[in-house]
Specification:
8 helices, alpha/beta
Length: about 260
């Protein structure tokens, strides 16, 4: 299927590795000119080198996307994106009683306020051009909260509520906003979660990882390229009637009829 994205531009946040990189890679394969962001310049450039094998129009914007300076760098490198993929590292796991006010504020800034700021920066241009695709990488925890992730549960659910309203307001302009909700994927994030779980269970992180993968209905963790492909489709011309949705990619872990 031709996704109709050739010569489009995309800004993909936190894309030096993991799910962000997978989204950038899938878009590059569709002929999109992609700008990727990341905090580590060397790591980001290494990711760009890999992407340029697929598509030559790859730019980088070094900086922390959760800061004003990082967002300015990203929007300078890609001032009028047709596609925005919002992504930022998830906050640490733990007991909500032990987190400081600063940690709560950091989680809200990274996973709620930062994507809102970027949406605000690019949305009106998309409306004028009559094409826009915004995909927010959130978490399966907005459907089924995870006890050890109270910071993530709170911030990402707030973003879900924001998107539910705004997405309906702009859909008539061929601008869509949707959320992709990853469950367990084989990324560095899962390593951190397994390490936290091992402290409570007494099992090794490797045992926790194996048990969690086996417990999933699919019998495994997701592959990053599967996530990237879903993101690319949501950005396609064919996905213009998908508006304000929370799309789970979790191997069937969330059990619900609706």
């Amino acid at each position: 299927m031709d996704l109709g994205l050739k010569q489009r531009t995309a800004l993909v946040c936190a894309a030096s590795a993991g799910l962000g990189f997978a989204c950038a890679e899938a878009l590059a394969r569709e002929g999109v000119a992609v700008t990727i962001t990341g905090r580590d310049g060397a790591r980001l450039e290494a990711a760009a080198v890999r992407l340029r094998v697929i598509g030559p129009e790859i730019r980088t914007a070094v900086g922390d996307i959760t800061t004003v300076a990082g967002r300015e760098a990203a929007l300078t490198a890609c001032p009028m994106p047709d596609i925005l993929v919002n992504n930022a590292g998830g906050p640490p796991p733990g007991d909500f009683r032990e987190f400081t006010d600063a940690q709560w504020q950091a989680a809200l800034n990274a996973n709620l306020l930062t994507p809102i700021a970027l949406i605000r920066a690019v949305l009106d241009g998309m409306i004028i051009r009559k094409f826009g695709r915004i995909v927010n990488i959130t978490s399966a925890s907005v459907k089924s909260p995870i006890g050890m992730l109270p910071l993530s549960n709170t911030a990402r659910t707030g973003l879900t509520g924001f998107v539910a309203g705004v997405a309906r307001d702009v859909a008539r302009h061929n601008v869509t906003i949707n959320n992709l909700l990853p469950g367990p994927f084989a990324t560095d994030r899962q390593v951190a979660i397994s390490a936290a779980a091992s402290k409570a269970s007494g099992k090794s992180p490797e045992e926790e990882t194996a048990a969690r993968a086996a417990a999933n209905p699919a019998g495994r963790f997701g592959r990053a390229e599967e996530f990237g492909a879903a993101c690319a489709f949501l950005c396609s011309v064919q996905a213009g009637f998908i508006v304000g949705q929370n799309i789970l990619l979790d191997g069937g872990a969330f059990n619900s009829t609706f």
